[in-house]
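Hi, here's the filled form for the chain we discussed.

Project: internal
Contact: R.S.
Residues: 269
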Amino acid sequence: MRSCQINVKILTGNSSSLLFKLPCQQPTFQCPDFEDAVLRAVTAVFGRHINHQGCFYHLTQASWRQIQQLGLVPLYKNDDDFRVFCGMMDGLAFLPVPDLTNGIHLLRTLCPDDPPEAAELLDYFDSTYISGRLRQQNPAQNQAVRLVLRRSPPMFPPAIWNVHDATVNGDARTNNMCEGWNNNFFNLVGHAHPSIWRVIEWCQKEEATVRTIIQQDAVGNPPAKRTQQRHVQLQERLQNLCRDLTTGQKTIAEYLCGVGWNIRLNHQY
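And the returned structure, exactly as it came back:
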């Protein structure tokens, strides 16, 4: 709760004078990292009409951190089957939302019995992103004491992280364009703690570059987007898999296996 309050203060404090000078003062879409405090703060400031579309890359990063916390890294690196299983788990993001329940049930049948931490990994994904957690409900006054459990909503419901429609439509699944700008600017500046004068100098150079790009776009000559061939091929493979699932050429198991292979082949870990 404290993190949410801090983010609300940032969005409504001194920085808001700059924020509300932007051309789009009433955004309808954001692509955040998976930080519950940020999601709640943005909703509190801009309203419930905001469409939150989580970054798929950060979804896989959250899964990877859980693999590390559970001590499953050696198994992940040395067991191809378990690595693909982890890819299938993240691949649930590519399933149509109505198929998610069948997808998680399928993965429970495929989950290794040993080590037991593998089941904990799947439980984490299910409770955080799909089914939510079971919580004990306190009995009402003058009611016999009994154990009553209710299922709370997941912290991040499927509408936030599901990328099936984005993949089919060729839309972005990540906020990597923002991450890419951050990395490029860091490389330009040269180190993590530059002087204020060096930052100003490189901000001015970056502004000049962006103004040139805007002018090119204004006259109908936008710079060509540089897309790595492997990303183009990955997008084609994922769209083919989505089509095969829709037409019934692949079962959910075959689909998740194919997506899982592609996800893990595309990552460095």
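Let me know if anything looks off before we file it.
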